[in-house]
């Protein structure tokens, strides 16, 4: 859809909206409008419920897991799903796959969220500064980031983790390193566009300092974009974190890491395909859920898109 | 066009230098002293340690070390692989060629299926077929590539015995282009999933845009069939975006082949990186990252140039 068409379809400007508003009701704040917009998107709400459930599972794993994830039952190895007591079956050591998946959420959720949050903070700061003070300093920051775009993201992340040594902290650090440039670029673009906007000029004319302009005038415009971009990226990071686990760079055995479980099950793929494939299903559901929530947020936080919905 | 290419080429050089710095720093991230690692127990002897450090140039300042390393890289000397005990450059070219085969196969899947899904989605917008295909594309793009690969090899290789799932050639028969092709089908399909979804999305949305243009209305008013309209008129406007996004995919496919190659034991750069991680062969890892990034940069350059050639409006200021 053409950008101009969108703004035409967005209807009358807000001032007219205000005049027509029922004055007996409290004014809808931007936040309330966004929440209402999000709530209208049933797919996004369902996805959010799924994410909350996964987060709860991560917290409550020791309470709700039927078995110890690392202790196998030698008499009940490679039991298929729906075996009595083992809803999702067991692996070749007789470990309960459901319990391992539940415990796996304790690794997957932090590994997906912490790098994105860290990169969002750092990337926003870099992008704001580089976009506002374009000159030599800002230009230098963006040229350095260009170098990171030139290296395939997955490869760079894997290489950094391989150099630093395996384990969840390394996974989180490497992922934060590789996504920071992407967030910085998004914020940089917004900042550079807004730098000469009328409301920024107005703030400057009324005597606001540069820091105040950056934080109060420009930052609020960048935040929704970063939230949406970050949420969608968390979906990608769940998959990426599984990739680290798959290559043996994540949590070390016997820890239940979803990606490592897929790799571990490969040796019995012919006879017991569930060992390898079931954890993958969980990854797909979690990753899709982040995508749908991000998409719902995108529509809810962008007034132009919201009015079309 | 030529001036654009030259300009673009000029911006590529600092990026290449930057990439070389990053790959150089990468190996410095490895904890521990490489000299100690080489000497093993003998590292307790300080004179031996100092000798090795001097021989490896580790006693020099970092900038000097980088310069020495870069001057070797410039003439194609990427160092010695510790796992194969041969120069990195004697291993890399063959692996790159194998990954290139996988990339071309993946690109074929991504372009063919991506175009079909994108066109069906745009022409039959909102239909069940549109929604189902887009959902499938999004789902498979949200799944780990290695998991898709495992599913494909379970279904088509283990259960149906239709296609081989391991390696690039069969050990029992003579390697012919046909055996390579049969080994290529599953890994390239698994590897294509994300690119396939990206291409389908771009084709669908640009084609929808194009179908809303006045000239399409005019063509429709003249009684032109949908097929002819899409093929003759709208599609020409989809091409620049489609080619540009496809060009970008080449780099991602090349870099993303890592997981696919591990699942299917495809003897390319991904498998090489995996074995280098296992063997802690950091020199090989460094060389692989450097070379893959150079390929990535080159392909992006070509795809940008192709877009400018196809769409004069994209001529940058």
Explain the overall architecture.
Chain A has 309 residues and is an all-alpha fold. Chain A is 73% helix and 0% strand. In chain A, helix 4 (42-64) crosses helix 12 (274-301) and helix 9 (198-205) crosses helix 10. Mean pLDDT of chain A is 86; it is low at 1-21. The longest helix of chain A is centred in the last third of the chain and has 37 residues, at 210-246. Chain A has helices spanning 3-9, 14-20, 30-40, 42-64, 97-132, 134-150, 153-164, 168-194, 198-205, 210-246, 258-265, 274-301, 303-308. Chain A is built from 13 helices and no strands. Chain A is elongated, with a radius of gyration of 23 Å. Chain A has a single domain (2-26, 109-308), classed as MetI-like fold, CATH 1.10.3720.10. Chain A starts with a helix and ends with a helix. With 317 residues, chain B is mostly helical. Chain B is 77% helix and 0% strand. Chain B contains twelve helices and no strands. Chain B has helices at 2-28, 34-39, 46-55, 62-74, 88-123, 128-142, 145-159, 177-211, 214-221, 226-264, 269-278, 282-310. The model of chain B has no long low-confidence stretch (mean pLDDT 86). The chains are: A mainly alpha (309), B mainly alpha (317). Chains A and B meet through helix 6, helix 7, helix 10, helix 11 and helix 12 of A and helix 1, helix 6, helix 7, helix 8 and helix 10 of B.
């Amino acid at each position: 859809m053409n950008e101009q068409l969108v703004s035409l379809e967005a209807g009358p400007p807000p001032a007219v909206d205000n005049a027509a508003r029922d004055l007996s009701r409290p004014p809808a704040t931007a936040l309330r409008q966004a929440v209402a917009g999000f709530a209208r998107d049933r797919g996004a709400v369902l996805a959010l419920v799924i994410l909350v459930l996964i987060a709860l599972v991560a917290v409550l794993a020791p309470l709700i897991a039927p078995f110890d994830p690392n202790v196998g039952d030698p008499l009940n190895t490679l039991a298929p799903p729906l075996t009595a007591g083992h809803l999702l079956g067991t692996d070749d050591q007789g470990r309960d796959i459901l319990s391992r998946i539940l415990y796996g959420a304790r690794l997957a959720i932090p590994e997906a969220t912490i790098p994105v949050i860290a990169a969002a903070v750092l990337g926003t700061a870099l992008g704001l500064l580089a976009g506002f003070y374009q000159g030599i300093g800002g230009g230098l920051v963006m040229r350095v980031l260009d170098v990171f775009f030139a290296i395939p993201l997955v490869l760079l992340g894997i290489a950094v983790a391989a150099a630093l040594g395996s384990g969840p902290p390394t996974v989180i650090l490497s992922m934060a390193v590789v996504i920071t440039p992407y967030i910085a670029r998004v914020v940089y673009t917004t900042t550079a566009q807004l730098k000469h906007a009328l409301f920024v000029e107005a703030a400057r004319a009324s005597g606001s300092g540069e820091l105040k302009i950056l934080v109060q005038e420009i930052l609020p415009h960048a935040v929704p974009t970063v939230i949406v971009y970050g949420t969608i990226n968390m979906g990608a990071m769940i998959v990426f974190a599984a990739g680290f686990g798959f290559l043996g760079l994540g949590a070390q055995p016997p820890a239940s890491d979803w990606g490592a479980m897929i790799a571990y099950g490969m040796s019995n793929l012919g006879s017991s395909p569930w060992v390898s494939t079931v954890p993958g299903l969980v990854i797909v559901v979690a990753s899709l859920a982040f995508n749908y929530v991000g998409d719902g947020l995108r529509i809810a936080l962008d007034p132009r898109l919201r009015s079309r919905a | 066009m030529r001036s654009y290419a030259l300009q673009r080429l000029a911006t590529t050089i600092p990026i290449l230098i930057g990439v070389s710095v990053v790959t150089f720093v990468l190996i410095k991230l490895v904890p521990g002293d490489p000299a100690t690692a080489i000497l093993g127990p003998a590292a307790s002897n300080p004179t031996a340690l100092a000798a090795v450090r001097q021989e490896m140039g580790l006693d020099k300042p970092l900038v000097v070390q980088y310069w020495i390393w870069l001057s070797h890289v410039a003439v194609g000397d990427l160092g010695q692989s510790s796992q194969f005990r041969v120069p990195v450059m004697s291993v890399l070219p063959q692996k790159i060629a194998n990954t290139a085969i996988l990339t071309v196969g993946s690109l074929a899947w991504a372009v063919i299926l991506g175009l079909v899904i994108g066109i069906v989605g745009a022409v039959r917008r909102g239909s069940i077929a549109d929604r189902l295909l887009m959902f499938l594309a999004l789902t498979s793009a949200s799944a780990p590539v290695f998991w898709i690969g495992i599913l494909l090899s379970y279904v088509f290789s283990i259960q149906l015995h239709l296609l081989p799932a391991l390696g690039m050639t069969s050990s029992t028969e003579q390697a012919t282009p046909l055996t390579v092709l049969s080994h290529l089908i599953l890994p390239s399909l698994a590897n294509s999933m994300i690119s396939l979804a990206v291409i389908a999305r771009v084709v669908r949305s640009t084609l929808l845009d194009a179908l809303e243009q006045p000239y399409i209305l005019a063509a429709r008013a003249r009684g032109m069939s949908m097929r002819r309209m899409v093929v003759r008129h709208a599609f020409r406007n989809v091409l620049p975006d489609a080619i540009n996004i496809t060009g970008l995919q080449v780099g991602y496919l090349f870099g993303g082949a890592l997981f696919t190659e591990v699942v299917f034991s495809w003897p390319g750069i991904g498998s090489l990186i995996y074995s280098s991680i296992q063997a802690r062969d950091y020199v090989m890892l460094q060389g692989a990252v450097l070379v893959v990034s150079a390929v990535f940069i080159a392909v992006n350059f070509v795809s940008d140039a192709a877009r400018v050639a196809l769409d004069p409006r994209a001529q940058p200021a």
